[in-house]
Amino acid sequence: TEIQERQMTTVPDLNIHCIGIDGDFDDCQALVKAAFADSEFRKEVNLGAVNSINWARVLAQITYYFYSYLRVTDNDSNTNTNTNAKVSYAVPTGNFGDILAGFYARRMGLPIDTLTVCTNQNDVLHRFFRSGEYRRTPAEATLAPSMDISVSSNSER
Predict the structure, then answer these.
(1) 86 within 8 A of 72, measured Cβ to Cβ
(2) For 47-103, what is each residue's pLDDT tens digit?
(3) Is 4's pLDDT higher than 80?
(4) What is the CA radius of gyration of the chain?
(5) End-to-end distance of the chain based on CA atoms, in angstroms?
(6) Cα(30)–Cα(41) distance, rounded to whole angstroms?
(7) How far apart are CA 144 and CA 148, in angstroms?
């Protein structure tokens, strides 16, 4: 959106350098991954990020699940007798980070019943879970730009 573009291109900090590319979100993610894969460049510019392909972001998102679980169950009259009350989450996702955090929260012992991946026409994860096929298709621009991807950056995790 125009607002997002202005947020990214009008940063006054001296250590932040904004660039524009002719491409979509997937093209940007490919450039970021390539920059992080280049260890010499990464060290030279002291490259760092907290985005959806960084474990720090996924770890932070895990706390959302624990916090929301505690809020949903804290008024439950059965909480004292049923310490394993399960909850389910429906998560809009494109890049797989937030739903991945839910997966790890469940692996850490949080009583999650189901994790539902919600998507739009850019349904890379739905297609993968349904058919086992993982392939890039052109991303369609929608009202949910964080879901407008065709390559899920966290799928390898």
Answers:
(1) no
(2) 877 666 678 888 999 999 999 999 999 865 554 545 679 999 999 877 788 889 999
(3) no
(4) 18
(5) 29
(6) 15
(7) 7
